[in-house]
Amino acid sequence: RSALKLSPYDEDLQKKFKHVSEKELDREISVVRSKIHQDPWRIGLNLDLARLLFKRGSLDAAARALQSALKDATRAVASHRLMGVIFKEQGRFDLALAQFEKMLEYKSDDPEADKIAWSQMGSCKESSGSVSEAVSLYEKVLAQDIEFESLSSRVKYLNNTNPSSVRNKALAAVIDLEAGSVRAVWGRDGRRHRADDEDLMSVTFGQGQNNSGFEKFMKDKVKEAEEDFVLASQLDPGLFSAQNNLAVIHLRNKDTEKARLSFSNLLLEDSGNPVYLNNVGVLYALKGDLDNAEKNFLAALKSDKDFNAPNFNLSQVLLKKGLMKEAVEYSSRINSCDPLYELTQRKFFYCNFH
């Protein structure tokens, strides 16, 4: 640990620190499990076990321990909070939202509990593009604590969103390079166009179908979402958000050629769109072309330096390239109220300096 503080970006030291930390966690987990086995009535120990399993990255096992911990009403707030954090890390923001809402059903000794619940609920709403609901929840926190987790700047950021990206929701792909898997969050576009106000007055046939597919995708109903995006594109060939969302499903299914064709057409229509550029970056990352992935993530961030998806994706690419200092720099832009915060923390969990 001392050596790591002196050389925080040394990859070999990082690996050794991770190995030692995991061995220590395994020992602590074994001790707590033994105590539970000896005295099953000590229900509160399940929360301690869940916290250790969560640190170890055993999310499903942690969730199972929390189901037992929830039988202890005195620790229910902490248990629901951790369960919500686990669901957020897994990209199930709908399930996470329900857990944070349950935090408010209990009286807590922690004066911060309600503010934490509201801010996390806002983060879940933000992940699905429900901007006005997210802002309302964040403002509820700010009414009690104006300094809470930089929420005031978050509210300002969300209020500057292009209204068309709220009305026609687009998916921003997020890649886990280690697992080779793709998930998504709402893709915010902060650029303003002259036609924005006029566009708000128009309603297309495909819009409702696209947004229905978006909601289904966020609830992991991917096949149903795909059907909605196909139908939305057929109803309205000019609805580019639906074409983007269908391409993200191709990415998720690792059908990179279909995704490439879709994104090529989309960039011809709007070459500076930060959501499309981010998604093209994910396409390159999936194919192992890290240089072009980095180039596209940087292009997306040139349009919006606070856009969470390319910040996270770029940090993963830089980490893969061995550029840890730069990776940490981009990951640090994702603050604790961001929908991708928990996933970011997992990727940098063993960075003692982070």
What report would you give on this structure?
With 354 residues, this protein is mainly alpha-helical. The protein has 20 helices and 2 strands. It has helices at residues 2-6, 11-38, 45-56, 59-69, 76-89, 93-103, 113-127, 131-142, 151-159, 163-167, 196-201, 205-218, 222-235, 240-252, 256-269, 274-286, 290-303, 308-320, 324-331, 341-347, and strands spanning 171-176, 181-186. It has a two-stranded antiparallel sheet. A hairpin with a 4-residue loop joins strand 1 (171-176) and strand 2 (181-186). The longest helix has 28 residues, at 11-38. The radius of gyration is 21 Å and the shape is globular. The protein starts with a helix and ends in a 7-residue tail after the last helix. The mean pLDDT is 92.
Number of strands: 2
Shape: globular
Order of helices and strands: HHHHHHHHHHEEHHHHHHHHHH
Unreliable stretches:
none
The number of distinct helices, counting runs of at least 4 residues, comes to 20
What strand order characterises the main sheet? 1-2
The gyration radius over C-alpha positions equals: 21 Å
Query: How much β-strand is present in the residues?
Result: under 5%
Structural class: mainly alpha
Distance between the termini: 13 Å
Main sheet: strands, sense, barrel: 2 strands, antiparallel
Question: What is the helical fraction, as a range of percent?
Answer: 55-70%
**Mean of residue pLDDT?**
92
Task: Describe this protein with a few key phrases.
single chain, 354 residues, mainly alpha, two-stranded antiparallel ribbon, 2 strands
